[in-house]
Amino acid sequence: MIPVSAPRFTLAEGPVWDGDRLLWVDIPEGRVLVGHLDGDVLVVDDEHRFDGHVGTAALAADGAMLVAETRSLTRVDPDGGRRSTGPIVEVGPDDRFNDGICDRAGRLLIGTLSLTGDHRDQRLLQIDKGTTTVLDDDLGLANGMAFSPDDSLLYSVDSVPGTVWVREYDHATGATGARRLLLDLSDTTPDGMTVDASGDLWIAIWGGAEVRRYSPEGSLVERLPVPAPHVSSVAFVGPGLDQLVVTTARSELSPAQLDAYPLSGSLFLTRTGATGLATHPWSGDLPTTRTPGAAP
C-alpha cells in the first residue's frame, strides 16, 4: 500500500471514481477535491471550498456536482455556479450530513452524525427531488453505504455501536425492505465501505489501521494493514476498477500518534486482486426542501 497524495488531509473521506476522475472530501476543512491518477501519483486538478463541513459529494452525468454541506445540499454547475437547498429539515440542528451514495435512479442516500456526540437518533435519508424519506432514525453514527453487484441489496454502516445492516432495495421505486443485521463489529469502528464485483464488502476501520474484507455472508476474508490509524473510506479506481484507494485522517490523533504515523491524512493505493463496481451518478436534480416548522 503506497501513499499517492502529497497533501495531508485533516479528514479525507468519500472517494468516488467516475471513470477517469477521483472525487473526495476533506470534511472539517470544507473542501471537495477532484483529481486523476498519474501512475502512482494522485494529481489534484480542481478544488471547491465551502463554509462549514462537507460530508460527501457526488457527480452527475452532465458534469454537475452535488455537495452535502453541514445541513444543506448544493449543486455546483460545470461553470462553477452554485445553488443550495438551504437546511434540510430532517437533519437535526445539532447534526450534520455524513457519508452518502447514489442509487441507480440517481437518488441520494445519505446519513447524519451528531456534532455534540449524542449517539442515539441519527438518520439515514433517501432524497429524491421533492421527497425526503427517513429510512432509519435510531442510528448512532450513520456512515458508509454500498450496493450488492446486482443492486438488489443496500448495505449501510452504523459506526456506533459498530453495525453493518443489509436490506432489499428497489431502484425503480426507491422502496426498501426491512433491515437485518449482517455484521456485528462492536469491537471496532467501521467507517466507509465499498463492494467488489464478487459481492465482498471492503470496510475501512477507524482507529484500527486496516481495511477488512467480508464475504456477502459476513465471514472475514482478508485484512489489509494501512500505515495510518484512522482509516475512513475505500473505493475501487482506475480504468479497470482494479485498484483500491484508501482515505485516512489526521484528526483525533495525538502528537505522539502523528509522529508514529506520519502518513496519516494521506490517500493510499493498492492492488488487491479484486475488481470494483461502477458508481451510480447523481440524477442532477437539486431537491426542493421544506422550511423548518412547515407541514410535511
Task: Explain what you see.
- The chain has a single domain, classed as Neuraminidase (6 Propeller), CATH 2.120.10.
- Strand 2 and strand 3 form a beta hairpin.
- The strands form 6 sheets. Strands 1-24-23-22 form a 4-stranded antiparallel β-sheet, with no helix packed on it.
- It is mainly β and 296 residues long.
- Helices cover 2% and strands 50% of the residues.
Write the layout of secondary structure elements.
Elements lengths: L1 E2 L8 E6 L4 E5 L4 E8 L2 E9 L4 E6 L5 E5 L2 E5 L5 E6 L7 E8 L5 E7 L7 E7 L2 E9 L2 E6 L5 E6 L4 E6 L11 E5 L4 E7 L5 E6 L3 E5 L5 E6 L5 E7 L5 E6 L6 H6 L6 E4 L26
Antiparallel strand pairs: 1-24, 2-3, 3-4, 4-5, 6-7, 7-8, 8-9, 10-11, 11-12, 12-13, 14-15, 15-16, 16-17, 18-19, 19-20, 20-21, 22-23, 23-24
Protein traits:
296 residues; mainly beta; 4-stranded antiparallel sheet; 1 helix; 2% helix; 50% strand; globular
Largest sheet: 4 strands, antiparallel
Which structural class do the helices and strands define? mainly beta
Query: What is the CATH C-level name?
Result: Mainly Beta
Q: What's the N-to-C terminus distance?
A: 48 Å
- By CATH, the architecture is named 6 Propeller
Number of helices: 1
Q: Summarize this, please?
A:
The chain has one helix spanning 255-260; strands at residues 2-3, 12-17, 22-26, 31-38, 41-49, 54-59, 65-69, 72-76, 82-87, 95-102, 108-114, 122-128, 131-139, 142-147, 153-158, 163-168, 180-184, 189-195, 201-206, 210-214, 220-225, 231-237, 243-248, 267-270. With 296 residues, the chain is mostly beta strands. The protein has a 4-stranded antiparallel β-sheet with strand order 1-24-23-22, with no helix packed on it. A 4-stranded antiparallel β-sheet has the order 2-3-4-5, with no helix packed on it.
